[in-house]
Automatic annotation (TrEMBL):
The keyword Nucleus does not apply. Its EC number is 1.1.1.44. Catalyzes the oxidative decarboxylation of 6-phosphogluconate to ribulose 5-phosphate and CO(2), with concomitant reduction of NADP to NADPH. Gene3D superfamilies: 6-Phosphogluconate Dehydrogenase, domain 3, N-(1-d-carboxylethyl)-l-norvaline Dehydrogenase, domain 2, NAD(P)-binding Rossmann-like Domain. Keywords: Gluconate utilization, NADP, Oxidoreductase, Pentose shunt. This is 6-phosphogluconate dehydrogenase, decarboxylating. It catalyses: 6-phospho-D-gluconate + NADP(+) = D-ribulose 5-phosphate + CO2 + NADPH. The active site is at K185, E192.
Length: 473
């Protein structure tokens, strides 16, 4: 076989097949391999005009032989041990200068480890986060690259070419070394969980609290998609609410079990936030909500034992403008927490993450793409190191919409409609504007039981409280 390909790709599943077609379409010949050969055959049978730029391989040896050295081979397989197995199988076939690119949703710590392991090996390694689902992978994803500048120089042209564009600017950029790209993708997914959860909470308020039917819910999302909330997730929520069940008729949503799956990136975001001691309660609430959603039997039992709350709201308690405003506030608070986490990670790991650039490459291609991210990019550029809630226009937007968020959380709580993410956002915001909180009590308790000491407000030296004066009563 002629050495025609510039790139190789392993894993022709949902993402890999679409990404390979995208790469070929942008003019880069690519060799492809899939564990199950019939999948490769089917992929080639459906390749149409792109077939001349796609080289199918039936083995890893064939794949490697079909790529012009120095090779760049993309892995698009499930995160975890499969990636290690692929690297192990590939490495003896590679030579100096060849590059393995893990484009799946790897845990950033695994990417750091694989990066270290590649030192002294024949191959080089880098990890990139790709977002946009199948459609994005096919026509333009957002790409969060981790690696060395030299690696970015090598593959950046192709990655920019296949990425989504916003006002002509590619949504692909170097985030930092090692696992930085996968870390940013992980936080992207954490924000995705929170964005989805808050939308689901407004859906519950419309369905159960306000008695809206699916058409009215769809109309509401469609209207919101023309305003400040304009985003991919609001757009698809409208489409989902409009969809009709092909089996039983009626709204598709009414036929779907209320238990959401998860592959782990949201959970990892929460775990890493705890390690960094950074507060991302909206994302945490969203992950907890998915865990709880899966407890279908326990929730049914709870309703039996304790009785279900009525859930319907008093007439005129809420309107869709108030819900929209609450969602605007919740969304800003959630992104403020996500970017705060990225800033902390950047300091902790010495990554120098390009914060405005992260917002820029999220403006298109990825699942959380939204109009608001354009303003976030400008706000982060104009206010380096500042939390988004202290940067205009977001300070103004939070001030304008906070009362609606409070109204929605109060109304939902009164009716027994769970709104954990919206409530977590509000609670975080309340804490962020409370100059004298209650942790003086925690300090005192810790000192009382564990002699941990405390800091006084007046700065005076007093290592322990009077409870440690054994002569006192
Ligand atoms: N789906 C999405 O929206 C997104 C997914 N991702 C990430 O992209 C990666 C791929 O996801 P996706 O395309 O959805 O997954 P799919 O399940 O659609 O495809 C998985 C691919 O990996 C191959 N594979 C699975 N197990 C093995 C194995 N043990 N050895 C070799 N090959 C194997 C499969 O081959 P075979 O045909 O033989 O089973 C298939 O080609 C994951 O890391 C995912 O988290 C990232 C962004 C979005
Ligand atoms: O990365 C993605 C989108 O950005 C994938 O679709 C991912 O699978 C979403 O996470 P989960 O499966 O946990 O909902």
């Amino acid at each position: 076989m002629d050495n025609l390909a510039h790139f190789g790709l392993i894993g022709l599943g949902t993402m890999g097949a679409a990404l390979a077609q995208n790469i070929a379409e942008k003019g880069y010949p690519i060799a492809v391999y899939n564990r199950t050969t019939s999948v490769t055959d089917e992929f080639m049978a459906n390749a149409g005009d792109l077939a001349p730029r796609l080289i199918p391989a039936k083995s890893l040896e064939e794949l490697v032989a079909a790529i012009t050295p120095p090779r760049a081979i993309i892995l698009m397989v499930p995160a975890g041990p499969v990636v290690d197995q692929q690297i192990e199988a590939l490495s003896p076939l590679l030579q100096d200068g060849d590059l393995i690119i893990d484009a799946g949703n790897a845990n950033y710590a695994d990417t750091e480890r694989r990066d270290r392991q590649s030192e002294g090996e024949t191959y080089d390694f880098m990890g990139i986060g790709v977002s946009g689902g199948e459609e994005g992978a096919r026509h333009g994803p957002s790409i969060m690259v981790g690696g060395k500048p030299a690696q970015w120089d090598r593959v950046g042209e192709m990655l920019r070419a296949i990425s989504a564009k916003y006002d002509g600017e590619p949504c692909a950029a170097l985030m930092g070394p090692g696992g930085a790209g996968h870390f940013v993708k992980m936080v992207h997914n954490g924000i995705e969980y929170a964005d989805m959860q808050m939308i689901a909470e407004t859906y519950a308020l419309m369905r159960d609290g306000m008695g809206f039917d699916a058409t009215r819910i769809a109309e509401t999302f469609e209207a919101w998609n023309k305003g400040p909330l304009a985003s991919y997730l609001i757009e698809i929520s409208g489409k989902v609410a409009r969809a009709v069940d092909p089996i039983a008729g009626g709204p598709m949503l009414d036929a779907i079990l209320d238990a959401a799956g998860q592959k782990g990136t949201g959970r990892w975001t929460v775990i890493e936030a705890q390690k960094l001691a950074v507060a991302i309660p909206v994302i945490e609430a969203a992950v907890v909500a998915r865990n709880l959603s899966a407890q279908v039997a326990a929730r049914a039992r709870g309703a039996d034992v304790f009785g279900a709350m009525p859930q319907s709201l008093p007439k005129d308690a809420l309107d869709t403008d108030t819900l929209e405003a609450a969602l605007i506030a919740g969304k800003i608070l959630c992104y403020a927490q996500g970017f705060d986490m990225l800033g902390r990670a950047s300091e902790e790991f010495g990554w120098k993450l390009p914060m405005p650039e992260i917002a820029r490459i999220w403006r298109n291609g990825c699942i959380i793409r939204s109009e608001m991210l354009n303003d976030m990019a400008s706000a982060l550029a104009a206010n380096p190191g500042e939390n988004l809630i202290f940067a205009d226009p977001f300070t103004r937007l939070v001030k304008e919409n906070e009362a609606a968020l409070r109204k929605v959380v109060i109304a939902a709580t009164g009716a027994g409609i769970a709104v954990p993410a919206l409530a977590a956002g509000l609670s975080w915001f309340d804490a962020m504007r409370t100059p004298r909180g209650s942790a003086n009590m925690i300090q005192a308790q810790r000192d009382f039981f564990g002699a941990h000491g405390y800091k006084r407000l007046d700065g005076k030296d007093a290592p322990h409280g009077p409870w440690w004066d054994k002569t006192a009563g």
